[in-house]
Amino acid sequence: MNGLYRPRDGRIIGGVCAGLARRFGMEPWTVRLLALLSCLLPGPQFVVYLVLWVMMPSEDRYVARAH
Asked: Looking at the domain assignment, is residue 10 inside a domain?
């Protein structure tokens, strides 16, 4: 499963950072740190996180759709 989805395990808030980390082969804490640091920059990072939370399927739905 190389798709982009929010895993059941490793979630902190919505699982977005854990899903991105799994998809790109990174550690979840690295993605969380990058997301946190990006909030110091001007831009709509929080809105992007919310959109990804809504748009990314959970692991249950992703697995069900794959079969």
From this structure: no
- pLDDT score of 44: 93
Give residue for tokens 């991105």: 20
Residue-wise pLDDT for 6-32, tens only, equals: 998 888 889 999 999 999 999 999 999
Residue 29 domain-assigned? yes
Count of structural domains, the chain: 1
d(CA 50, CA 7): 16
CA angle 67, 55, 66 (to 5 degrees): 5
Residue 10 has a pLDDT of: 84
Residue 4 lies in a domain: no
Q: Distance of CA 46 to CAs 19, 33, 52, Å? A: 16, 14, 10
| Tokens coding 38 | 């990006």
